[in-house]
Amino acid sequence: MPRNLDLTALRSFVAVAEAGGVTRASGFLNLTQSAVSMQLKRLEDSLGLELMDRSGRTIALTASGEQLLGYARRMLALNDEVYARLTHQDYEGEVVLGVPHDIVYPAIPQVLRRFHSDYPRVRVQLVSTFTRSLKQQFARGECDMILTTEDTIDAGGETLTSLPLVWVGAPGGVVWKQRPLRLAFEHRCIFRAGVTAALNKAGIPWEMAIESDQCRTIEASTSADLAIHAMIDGTIPPYLEAIQHGGALPPLEKVRVNFYHADPTKSPVIQDLAVLVRQAFGVRPVQAVA
């Protein structure tokens, strides 16, 4: 049957070991000397070991006490971290994270789940819209951090990865063979200008057959083989597929996934969420040089 160590007694044990005696430790702990001595005795009795060598003028650790000291420090540090995270006002409140709809999956749900586990009292508001809108909201201070999909990067941004843009259409669709080429795009889609420029450069006639402010409208029209669209590779939903055009359509440029965030040094919450976002897109944390 598992037995539990008394954290209060462990704290007294560590204090005595670090202070070099019961008298000084009792002052640090704001306890009487007899209370500290009783906790040490209770800890020794629970383990069935002598932790303190009391034969000399000063208290010293026995071999068992030296071994326990490292464990005790780690247990108390973890206890204090858990308590601080769950009760301190710095770990409450709300964080606003903006993400373009086309890169919400699969990374962001994993980020939110891990963050909620670490900060259960912090609410994360996820805003999903177009990159242009997200950058405007971030500039107004309405988002604490945003991800963007764009060709370039603004000052203060950080490129997490670059992903290829691919032509997508209905599974088994044939509309991509028609000329003029029928396109379906949102009005504010940041990929739109690059796609049409690539078609113009290749000398392929095109028409904007489907336009909407809603991504679902574009995806539904594309999956019905009414037009084709362009998406980031790896984010294509099951009702669409990458078009195997054999060179009949021009290649498209890679897209940067950029990251903009408020000063992380002002809040451990912002700092830790930023780390999770970076890790989700394959950015490893920088190791400190000893």
Question: Could you characterize what this model shows?
Answer:
There is one protein chain. This protein is α/β, with parallel strands linked by helices and 290 residues long. It folds into two domains: 7-87, Arc Repressor Mutant, subunit A (Orthogonal Bundle), CATH 1.10.10.10; 94-290, D-Maltodextrin-Binding Protein, domain 2. Helices cover 40% and strands 22% of the residues. The protein is built from nine helices and eleven strands. Strands 3, 4, 5, 6, 9, 10 and 11 form a seven-stranded mixed beta sheet that branches. Helix 1 (7-19) crosses helix 4 (63-87), helix 2 crosses helix 3 and helix 5 packs antiparallel against helix 9. It is elongated and about 95 Å long. Residues 286-290 have low confidence and may be disordered.
